[in-house]
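User: I'm putting together a teaching handout on how multi-component assemblies are represented. Below are the sequence lines for each component of a complex, exactly as they appear in our records. Could you produce the 3D structure of the whole assembly as C-alpha cells, so the students can see both representations side by side? Please keep the chain order the same as the input.
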Amino acid sequence: MKRAGFSTRWLPIMLLLPQLLIIVIFFYWPAWHAVRSSFFLQDPFGFGETFVGLKNYASLFKSSAYMRSAWFTLFFVVLVTFFSLAIALLFAVKADKVLRGAKTYRTLLMWVYAVAPPVAGVLGVIMFDQSWGPATEFFALLGYDFRLGVNYYDTAFAMVVVSVWKQLPVNFIFFLSGLQSIPRSVREAALIDNRSASSRFWDITFPLLAPTGFFLLITNITYAMFDTFGVIDVLVRGEPGNNPLTLVYKVYVDGFRGNDLGGSSAQSVVLMVLVLAMTVFQFRMVERRIHYT
Amino acid sequence: MAQVTLDNVRKVYPNGFEAVKPASYNIADGEFVVLVGPSGCGKSTMLRMIAGLEDISDGALKIGDRQVNKVDPADRDIAMVFQNYALYPHMTVRKNIGYGLKNRKIDKSTIEAKVQEAATMLNLTEYLDRKPSQLSGGQRQRVAMGRAIVRDPSLFLFDEPLSNLDAKLRNQMRIEIKALQRRLGVTSIYVTHDQIEAMTMADRIIVMNGGIIEQIGTPAEVYHSPASTFVASFMGAPPMNLLEGRVDGGMIRVGDTVVGNTTLAVTGPVTVGIRPEDLEPSVGGQLRIDVSIIEELGAHRLVHGHIAGQALTMQIGKDTAIGDGPIPVAIKNNAVSLFDHQTGNRL
Amino acid sequence: MKRIKLETILDHTVLIIGSLIMILPIVMLLQMASTPDIETIKNGPGLVFGDQIPVNFEKAMFQADGFSGANTGVRMLYNSMILGFGFAFGKIIVGMMAAYAIVYFRLPFATMAFWIIFTTLLLPLEVRILPSYEIVQKLGMLNTYQGLIIPLIASATATFFFRQFFRSVPEELVEAARIDGAGPIKFFIDILVPLSRTMIAAMFIIMFVYGWNQYLWPTMITTEEDMFTLVRGIKQITQSIDNTNVPEYGRANLLAIIAILPPVLIVIFFQSWFVKGLTESDK
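Assistant: Of course. Below is the structure of the complete assembly, with chains in the same order as your input.
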C-alpha cells in the first residue's frame, strides 16, 4: 500500500471484483471440489456418491500402479531438473563470456522457449522413430535396439531428453541474467585475488548465482511435474499402456479416461499437498539464507 | 496569498507511533519558513499533513481563513515540490507543467500561455518538448518548480527539493528558489535536513526533533540563542561545543577553569555551549587547550583539542599562528550559552 | 596469448553445439515438410530439401482431417489467435485492475484480498484439472472461447507482476498527481498505464506464448473440431499418423511448424521485452 493511497470505497471493490470472481469460481470452487470428492466414491453410472472417508487415499497408496508412477515421477523430476540446470548453466557461463556473437547465441539458445510442449513431443517421436529416427539409428550404431513406447526405460529416456531440451531456454535466460547482474567490481576483485578461472567460478560466481539457482530449482521441479504433460502425452501417443507416467498424467488418465473420480481427486489432493509443501520450503529457504542483499 | 495556522496539529499512526506531537504555530503571509531536523524527526510528516497527503489525527489546520483538515490536496490551493521531483516520466516538460491546470479544466490557450510564462521565468523554454529523462538534475528541479508556479498557489511546499543535486548545483538552486519566492511573494514551507539551507533561505526556522518542535525563530536567533542542546548541536557546522561544567555563585566553570559569568540564578552542574568561532587563541586567554589536530580548510582552520578531558573544536583564521601543546584561548564577547544539565533546555 | 585463444575456441564450440541442439530438430521438421510423404515413410528425415512445402502448406491450411471437416489449419490458427490474444489481454486487464486496487487504495480487507488472490500462485491448473472441467461443464461453457480462456486466467501471475511493478513506482508520483487534481481513475489512465507500457508489453509476450501453447486444458474443454487450436490439434495429427496407412508426414510437420511460428517470432523479435517479462515476473 502506498502512503498516500486513495480512500475511495467503491472503486477498488469494482477493480478487484473480476479477479476475485474468476478466482472463486475457477480456483477455489474446483480446489474445494477436488478435496471433497476425494472422500467420496462416485457411482460409475452417475447415480450419486457414497462417503468413504480416507479409503480413496488408502487404496491409492496400496495401488502398485500409483506407486510405480510416483517413483517414476521422482526419478523423472530429479533427472530433468539436474540436467536442464547443469547444461543451461554451462551455456549461460559461456554465453556470458564470449564477446563475439553473444547476441546471436543468446537468441539461438532461448527461442525454443516459445515451442509448445506437445510439438517438442512430436520432435521426440520423430527422433526416436522405430524405423528411421535419427536417435534410434545412433543407438543402433552403438549396438542398442532402442524401442520407444515398448521398452519402459527407453520411453522414460526419451521423455527426459525431450523435457530437458524444452526447459533449457528458461534456465539459460535466468542464469544469464543472474550472471550479468553480478557486479563488475566483484568480478574484478576476484580476478585480482585468484588466478584460476575455474576456482574463481566455484568460489565466487557459483555462490552468487545461488539465489537464481534456488529459484530455478523450484521452477524446474514444478515444470517437470506439471508442464511436461504435453511432451508425455505425445510421446506415449495418448496410450498410457505400460508406459512410464508422471503423477499429473495419471490424474488425467484415471479421472478423465477411467472415470475414477474419487481416486483421481485423491491424487489431485496429494499433488496439492506436495506443491504446498514445496512452496513453504521455498519461502523458508529464501528467508533463511540464499539472499545476499 | 495566505497565512497558515496550526493549532495543536498531531499525527499518530495506526500502530500507535506519534510522529508529530501537538504543534501550534502561525506562518505569516509571504513568509518563507524552513522545517529542519534530522531524518525521522517528523518534519516531512508535518509538511505532508499541510499538503493533505497525510490525515491529521488531531488539531486544526488553516490555510488562509479556511480550515482544511478534510479538504482534498487538489483543493487546498497549494503546490508541492518533491525530493525526487515526481515528474511524470512519460510526459513532456510542457505536459508535466500543465497537467494540474488541465485537470482544473482550464482552456488550452490559457494553459499554454501560463506554461510559457513559467518556462521563461525558469529558463526552460527550449526544453518544453523534452521528456524528464532527457534533462539534467538541475533542469528537472526547475520543471518541478514550474509545475508548482503555474498553479498560482497560495502556498508553496518544498520537500527536500535540493537533496538529489550535487553540492555546486545545490548552492545555485538555493539562491534561485529564494529569489523566486521573494519575487512571487508566496507563503512557503520548506523541509530540509540541511542546516545550511535552513540558515540561508529561511525567514524563520522551525527546528524539530523526535516529533517535537524544539525552537521557532529567525536564523540568527536559532544560531545564537539555541533553545536546547539539540538545536545547538544541529545548527552550525562544526557544531557548538557542549561541555560539562558547573555554576558556583555566578561563575561558570569547566573543570577548574572559569569560562564566564552568569546572572542566572543557577548553581550546580550545567551544560556549557560555546560556538567554535567564538574561541580564539589569545595570550591572555583564560582557557588552556591541548591541541591534538589541526584541519586546514583554506579560508579558515579547525583546531581540535581538549579542555579538562573534554573534546573541543575551535575555528581560527587562516593566518592565525598556532603551536602544539597547551595553548591559551579566550572566548569572544563572553559568548557562552548555558543549558540544563538534565533536560538540555536553555537556561 | 595462445592459451587464451584456445579457451575462446572452446567456448565457441560449446555454444555452437548448444545452438545446433536447439535448432536442428526444427530444421529436421522443415526438411520432412518439404519432402514427399512416400520418401519420408521409407527413409525418415534426410539431408536434402524437397519441393513439397507449397503442396503441404495448402493441405495443412485448408484441408481438414476430422469427421466434421472443420479443423482446417486456418480455423485452428484463428482459434489459437483468439486463445493467445484473449488470454493475454484478459489476464493483463484483470491483473492490472486488481493490482491497482491492492497497491493504491486503503481497503479494509486488503490483506484478505491479497491472500485470496495470491494463494492461486501456489497451485497450477493441472492439479485441479478435473473439477475445473466439471465446473466449466456445469456452467455450459464446454467448446466455448470463454470456457477455454477464463479458467486459465484464474491464477494471479499477472496481478502479482503488476503489484511488484506498481510498488516500485515512486510514491511521490501519486502524491504529485493528487495535488495536480487527478482522481483515482485519472491517475490510472493518465499516469500509471502509460508508465507501465514496457511492463505491459513484456507481460503480453509471456502471456501470449503461455496461452498459445496451452495443451491439456484445450484438449479437455474443446471436443468440437471447429474449436481446436493448433497446439491442441497436434494430438489429432499424431493420432492420424498412427492410424492411417499412408501417414501424411509433410502435412503434419508443416502444421507443427505453423503452430510454433507465431510465438517463436514474437519471442525473437521482442527479445528484450520478453526476457524482462520473464525474469521480472517470477521474483
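A couple of points students might notice: The longest strand of chain A covers residues 40-42. Residues 276 and 282 of chain A are 10 Å apart (CA to CA).
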